[in-house]
């Protein structure tokens, strides 16, 4: 605990120093960070390259290397953008993330229906959370996995809630959502669905050309509560800017077959990744487990 505290308090001034930088200088720092991470430390380069090769067997080594370099450029941008979101203004967040197709959310709001949002680690999902809180009529709840360092965990929670979003610890998801069901407030709960569960309790499917474990949680809760499931698509039209588009994935989850919703959101995420692979989190050890 002492080491965690020391690490946090030593890091905090540098984190906030980066956070208050103007965007043009922030991206110059990101360029420097790219050189350090990619060329000096080669951070998880073997993992990234192997994930890309397995996901895109039709691509040449040259194409794989190009995607990897673009990914590391984005990855460094993602780091500094996440830090920037500690102090970013509402106006700057709205400028950086453009929310499209909000009619679908307005429709369900008028029908007084709570929603489930599902997305992957695409783009600057930390900025996206702030944008969704601003530009929808729903109260946004974000499910997260607590960090082992409680000091950084509290910092991240504070960042995610500074624009009126709320957070739910992963282990408390079902209990909290049952409680929210009884409330009159119209809530939308956001699931990040491309994390890695334990292999024996997972739903297994083919994702990006590989056998992949998927958390059951999104599907089980959607079917239990019968909330419409909205997929959140994200693309990056240019550096530092993101376009967020909600799409109806399933209107009546209770009527679906086992595994159907899991297949829906997994395949939809794969489509986005294939269109713009460099903005997905390839450094994550997504395929560290084998199917039992």
Describe this structure in words.
The protein has 292 residues and is α/β, with parallel strands linked by helices. The protein has one domain (2-279). It contains eleven helices and nine strands. It has helices spanning 2-19, 23-40, 45-55, 61-84, 90-96, 103-110, 125-135, 150-161, 173-182, 217-225, 260-275; strands at 97-99, 115-119, 139-144, 166-169, 187-192, 203-207, 210-214, 229-238, 241-250. The strands form two sheets. The protein has a seven-stranded mixed sheet, with helices on both faces. Strands 6-7 form a two-stranded antiparallel sheet. Helix 5 (90-96) packs across helix 7 (125-135). The protein is globular. The protein starts with a helix and ends in a 17-residue tail after the last helix. The mean pLDDT is 93.
Radius of gyration, whole Å: 19 Å
The tally of beta strands, per DSSP, is 9
Distance between the termini: 36 Å
State the low-pLDDT regions, or none: none
Order of helices and strands: HHHHHEHEHEHEHEEEHEEH
Beta fraction of the residues? 15-25%
Which outline best applies? globular
Query: What strand line-up does the widest sheet have?
Result: 1-9-8-2-5-3-4
Number of helical segments with 4 or more residues: 11
Give the topology, please.
Blueprint: H1 2-19, H2 23-40, H3 45-55, H4 61-84, H5 90-96, E1 97-99, H6 103-110, E2 115-119, H7 125-135, E3 139-144, H8 150-161, E4 166-169, H9 173-182, E5 187-192, E6 203-207, E7 210-214, H10 217-225, E8 229-238, E9 241-250, H11 260-275
Parallel strand pairs: 1-9, 2-5, 2-8, 3-4, 3-5
Antiparallel strand pairs: 6-7, 8-9
Helix pairs in contact: 1-4, 2-4, 3-4, 5-7
